[in-house]
Records
---
Amino acid sequence: MVQQDIASYIYQISGQNPFLCMQCGTCTASCTGREAMDFPPRTVMRMLQMGNLAVLDLKSIWVCSTCLICTARCPRGIDIARLMEALRVINLRRGREVLVAEKIPPELLLKVPQMALTSGFRKLSA
Amino acid sequence: MKIPYFPGCTLHSRAKGLDSSTRASLAALGVELNELPQWTCCGTVFPLALDNYMGMVAAARILANSSREGGGKLATVCSFCYHVLKRVNHAIKHNEEVRQKLNTYLEENYTGEVQVLHPLEICRQEVGLEVIKEKAANSLKGLKVACYYGCMLVRPAAEMQFDDPENPSIMEEIFSALGAEVVDYPHKTACCGSYQILHDSGLVKQKAQEILGSAASKGAEVMVTSCPLCQFNLDALRESYPELPRIPVVYFTQLLGIALSLPEESLGLQEHYVDARPLLLGRRG
């Protein structure tokens, strides 16, 4: 994947155009996971515009809880949650994952609702 | 009135109280929920990658099966199930490629005709607030309730068509009608951190502090939700973090059941970590 292709590759997976972003930061201000991220959603959007492939290695994409508040509030109508999903999907389809069943503490595993396991593995495991 | 019902996997295991209190409170309001004869997990999350049709198959199968039950409706209460079924239904209805691919794979001919209903919508639209008021003993008078919607019920508004995505009010309308004093607090559509409980529980703890703290600062005595994951994240985490505000977090159907004077065993309140029973059980008329 060459540098200038990341935006079009992302578009192919998500149907979303990161160049529409005007860098207002509404997504960052609203984001559930922003304090746990290395770079907030606004910066992720800027990295995509600049073709910065380091965007694929950010912690941010795995901290996203797909709560869709960025999508709901984006004044440019970008479905930012779909862009974040595309960044995860590129990693997951290469076998790069962050949630490994064996590493979940057993005491938590026995208590969490089943839906946490299904959703967590669907979003964060290859 | 009978409506086909999809409980979802969590309601048959870790959130049995949500299942039993939903069935019992709607039955008391004259709505019989008929569990689908055969169902699987809905998939839990709506796939956001355009080429991920596989992530929609389970929900499409449930919807197609429910269309054979008659009545043209399907009730489901878990916020995640409701979100996935409603969005997959929307995609089948409005996206020809999705419709064709899913039908070909499943050997079905489903076109999105079933109306997916949340019990909150059933309460407001099918039953009506006046009937709920009539059937309740008005025993919630003076109780300060924080209604918590979280993320999956309301967003994205264009597809969910549930309520105002920034300021939903359907739960407030129901509990106000029952005499409760609903508190206005800014975090009712904030996300609890969701499945990050498995990956970054520190994030969930921070969200729980913000959401519970915000409701507590407005004087809330109890918080209501329709999501087993929100309930877990906001409630059970207090076992590990006792410094978090101790407001009981219950399902809205459990509080509705209290107002309807339903028997304790149908409510499942014993499942929660912070016990709501001392606050609520005495209120049953």
---
Amino acid sequence: MINKISKFINGLFSRIFGKKKNLKLGLYGPTNSGKSTLANRISKDWLGEEMSKASRVPHETREIIIKEKIEVKSKGKSLIFNLVDTPGIATKIDYEDFLRYNMTKKEAKQRAKEATKGVIESIKWLDSMDCVLVVLDSAQNPYSQVNITIIGNLAARNIPVLVVANKIDIKRANVKKVEDAFPQYDVVGISAEYGHNMEEFYNALFKVVK
Amino acid sequence: MITLQFVPYNELNRLTPLGRIKKILDIVKENKIVLVEGRLKPSEEAELIQRTMEEVNREFKGIELCTIYPENKNDDAINKLKATMIDLLIGNRRGLTVIGPATIVKEIKRDPNKIQLLTNNMKKRRRR
């Protein structure tokens, strides 16, 4: 009830004083769910250039990366936002896990150190987001605590959420399982890497933001 | 040997949010698995992850965390109201939070009504 009143008041204010400038659209999720790949896909689709470095090595993104003024157009409507790619959220980081990716011990330790800072930064930035895309690997179990903690925190802050079930190109991907895990949210299945279902993704984005 | 430590709701409830996080982390860093009566708030879960990341070092690799919460999607409005009233009267004691050190707990799987706790030792035993 309080949430509904708060949403109504926020909506009323935005209608009276116009749209908020510099809308921040955040990409959140666990590590290796494809946040940076999706950031690159969006940036490439609308600006013609990539914004982040995507990799199969966990914690590739260890700092917040922002691409400003991305204008997305769909069905005669337009939406301008600053896209914020965030480091993946994790509850544990072991430098030894990086050694299997041909890193030296020194490099692995440095990466682990930066990764811990990245997780802290991601969480700190939650408060400043206007809308969040929670990017999940649809081939993984959606009931992980990291997913639940992220979505729980966004709900507590009344931040609009679109759940993106990424990697639908993988054979064992299960978008239905993601939908069942988060029935109160809009879920859209995509493959950011191959650009599958991006039109539906942009339509869903408009629906959630506006 | 794995040690489980149960932390009752009342023991945490009298602490500040930061005090709660500190208490949990102190126990986890003693290589014990903590079973907390009730569920942490989402903001406390986020704070716990942040604090954990601040303390990651050579010995402490982080935590595995899982909350189990009795939530029936088919509950009608009356049952939901009942649950809310109980929470207001006696505090949010429903559910259970499991937190373990990552060096001992390899993974906690939830799917969605049961949890499986895989420990590093168990994995080694299986390999043998």
